[in-house]
Design goal:
Length: 146
């Protein structure tokens, strides 16, 4: 595979990883928002329960409230696990992006050095051609003066 092909492939990889990272970031924000909503719901339930407890609760009402709290706590735990998984995915993708970016920079440096070497070779060839032409002119002038 040519250097230019590798550079293009690495650039595409970097771009794809950046898009993945953006999507993961959006997902993380949504999950964190969902977590905060669930926490607020639970807090509201607790305040409501406390008010109703003062007035007295039947065992059925308490069991119903306890069921809702257990369900909400389970949902909160699920969202927390999803957030943790999303953070891990973000960290993994970020590490891949850093690695791909470094490889891309390295390939760019190699390509730049290769271009510089080609320019230097071309300049040397041009100088040699000019020197040979000047030498021939000088030789022909000397021969014509002799």
């Amino acid at each position: 595979m040519s250097l230019e092909s590798l550079r293009k492939l690495r650039a595409q990889t970097v771009e794809a990883l950046m898009m993945d990272l953006a999507q993961i970031t959006r997902t993380l924000a949504q999950r964190e928002e969902r977590y905060q909503d669930l926490e607020a719901q639970i807090q509201h339930e607790v305040v409501t329960h406390d008010r109703q407890s003062v007035q007295g609760l039947t065992i059925e009402a308490w069991l119903e409230w306890q069921g809702r709290m257990d369900s909400q706590q389970a949902a909160l735990c699920r969202v927390r696990r999803e957030i943790d998984q999303t953070v891990e995915a973000w960290q993994h993708t970020k590490a891949l992006l850093v690695e791909a970016s470094l490889e891309r920079k390295l390939l760019d440096i190699v390509a730049d050095k290769r271009r510089d070497a080609q320019r230097a070779d071309a300049a040397r060839l041009e100088q040699r051609t000019m020197d040979e032409a000047a030498s021939r002119r000088h030789s022909t002038r000397r021969e014509s003066h002799s």
